[in-house]
Amino acid sequence: MEKTAASVIGDRINSFEPIVGESPLLLILGSIPGKVSLESGRYYDNERNHFWRLMCYVLKEPKCHPDYVERVAMLKRRRIALWDSVGSCVRAGSLDRNIREERPNDIPRLMRDHPTIRAICFNGRASEAVYCRHHAEKMREYDIRYLLLPSSSPVPRKFIKTFEDKLAQWIEIRRILDGTMAL
Q1: Does 2 map to a domain?
Q2: Which domain covers residue 12, as residue numbers?
Q3: Which secondary-structure segment (H or E) carries 140?
């Protein structure tokens, strides 16, 4: 698999294309890739970020494969799509609080193209806030379950400090995929 197309034009950074397999059930939305990911062209490529480790636990993968291609295949196999709320922005560093001049990704188009998606999970409050600002009204026509998850970022928050704190909430993804959480 080639690197995901992303670019930095002047101070403006652009998100990656979505990762979408056949008939996805769930969409995980981050805010926009951090500096390490932008440089590598891979979602959540900062080894300190908990995303891939969380997903391996949630999906009961016996081994979290180090190969990016295998990680992406794992998501697609489990009918999970991955994208970002922010399509482009100006941001110094990698922190969401530094996002300025945001332009959203076209989430409504993605939903029209993939009507099997029944749930959207936000990887952190920044992703949710951008989505709500730009798409909440347009998305009312869809029967979608929303789930706000603590950011997979390694930066500790007031009440979410450890991997285990995050996992306790991210495990809800398993319930959505297994159909035991009402949609």
Answers
A1: no
A2: 7-178
A3: none
- β-partners of residue 88 are 14, 103
| pTM of the predicted structure, to 2 decimals | 0.89
pLDDT of 161 reads 75
CA distance 38 to 65: 21
Q: Do the strands 12-14 and 26-30 form a parallel or antiparallel pair, or are they unpaired? A: unpaired
Asked, for residue 183, whether it belongs to a domain, the answer is: no
Contacts of 139 (CB under 8 A, 6+ apart): 107, 108, 111
- Dihedral (CA of 157, 76, 31, 118) sign: negative
Q: Which residues of 16-46 are buried (b: 16+ CB within 10 A; e: fewer)?
A: bebbbbeebbbbbbbbbbbbebbeebbbbbb
Total number of domains in the chain: 1
In a domain, 42, yes or no: yes
Distance CA 132, CA 153 (A): 21
What pLDDT shows up at residue 3? 43
Reading across the β-sheet that carries 80-84, which strands appear in turn?
Answer: 80-84, 26-30, 119-123, 145-149
